[in-house]
Structure formats: C-alpha cells, structure tokens
Amino acid sequence: MDRFASLSAFVKVAELKGFAPAARHMGLSPSALTRLVAALEDHLGARLLRRTTRSVTVTDEGERYLLQARRILADLADADASLQAVRAVPSGRLVVAAPMAFGRFHVGPLLSAYLSRYPAVQGELRLGDRNVNLIDDGIDVAVRIGELGDSTLKARRVGETRRVLVAAPAYLERHGTPATPDDIAGHRCIHFSGFNAAHEWVFERDGRRVRVGFTPSFVTNGAESAVQHAVDGGGLTLVFAYQAASALVRGHLRVLLADHERPPSPIQLVYPTARLLSAKVRTFIDMAASDTHWSFTDLDASTGA
Description:
Elements: H1 3-16, H2 19-26, H3 30-44, E1 49-51, E2 56-58, H4 60-84, E3 92-98, H5 100-117, E4 121-127, E5 141-145, E6 153-161, E7 163-167, H6 169-175, E8 189-192, E9 200-205, E10 208-213, E11 218-220, H7 223-231, E12 236-240, H8 241-249, E13 254-256, E14 265-272, H9 279-291, E15 294-296
Parallel strand pairs: 3-4, 3-5, 6-15, 8-11, 8-12
Antiparallel strand pairs: 1-2, 5-14, 6-14, 7-12, 7-13, 9-10
C-alpha cells in the first residue's frame, strides 16, 4: 500500500465530502480513490469514512486520524518546499484576501509593490470583511485581524491595531464626553456589527473586562459607514484604529476612553498548513514582514488619544 497516496486520498475525500469531487481534484478515477481509502482502513482496522448514497462523512475515529494525517502531509510538503524554495522563481497566480478597508488602503499598495518586484506573478486581491475558507476559495494568503480561532492555519504577525471608541468634536460639544464606559448609556451609539452581532461593546481596565449594552441608533456591517456617520455627528462608534485613522488625523473624530481599551489586536498573514508553500507565497509573506509593519497603536497626539 502506498501510504502517502492513501493518506492524501483520505484527507481529500474528508475535505470535499465525497469520492467523486476528490477523484477529480486528484486526477484519479473514483474506483482508484476508493481502493486507496479502503486499503488504508484495512491497514488500520478502523472505519474512517461513513458512506451513504447521498453523502460521505468522517467517523469519530476518522476525525482523530484526520488531524494526524493533515500534519503528516503538511510536514512532507514543508520538507519538499524547503529544498525547492531556494531554486524556485516566484511565478503564477497569487490570490490575497483582506478586509475591505484595510485591503484598499494597505494591502493593495503592498501587492502592487510586490508585483513590480516579481513580474512573473499575476496578483489578485479579494476584499471582504467575512473570513473565508482559504483552501475552498483558492486563496494563497489572507490578512486576518485578531486572534485566530482555526489552529490549522499558519500565521505571521506583521502588526497590530487598537479598537477605539470615537466621536466627532461637534457631537461631543452638544452631548458631552463620556468619562467611563457607564456613561455610554446616555449617548447615541453607532454599531459596527463586524465585531459582534450583539449590541454591546467590551472595554478593559486593570485586567477587568466591562461589557456595555446599548440600543443603537444606527447599525451597519461596514466600518466605513460607521465612521462616516460618526464624522457627521451621529454619535459614538467602536472600530479598529486603522478604520478611523484618516478621520482622526484630520481632527474629524476624537478617541474616547483610551484608558479603557482592550489590548491591541494582532494583524497577521495566514496561509494553509496543508498547502505547499510556493515561492510566490513565501516571497510575498517575507516582503510584507520585512517591508511593512502595520501598527495602529500610537495615534497622533492631535487625535486626543
């Protein structure tokens, strides 16, 4: 039995939830793929996949084995990549995903500079505030802000950003400036739902978290809309510092309750562990880490931070 081929077949069937799509992906016939998985199950003496006429699911034993199989395949891919990377020239299509505003203002210029340095690469930048599945959507590298919940991804930290509560000076002149999180209850609140769907903001001081609930006067899943409404005097809003940076520098917004902010959130480049780290991915990550440090923690003094 070819253990590598059997492991690869099992992992691909589990990920794509079917023998037919896995066979197409691997360039094999469904019967050949079935024999590989059957040989692996016979070798282990355990049923890894549960088959019905309509679906293929992973058994409990298969779930445990799947984690180990992915690690083994990733280690093999990394070993190959370490030998090939020295000789490889970056080329082909590089797909990078990033949050909407951050991608336009920061990742786009970085990708342009990268493509100028490596003209054999064709770049694609996908913008969206929803975390996508890198493997299913064919993404090579993604920018993620915040701690990672998916341990199957590798990450390289390239910066950090604060979450800031902001409001327009004109609004604060009319309604007063909150001195503590409890004061938020007396203000109009603009809720950017990208942080969470619940109508609450989380603050922290001396290691103690405080959750503040509110009834929003405006709700949006777009940070730029929340920032613009705040600039127009619509009330308070909580966003990442990079999302409000331009308005803060211009004095259109002020930072509030800076001493109650949560610790900065990391900005990371992530990529799948199960995918061979190609020269184009490696050089893009290296360029981002060496040429760029996206830090949105030390805001200009004129912002009131």
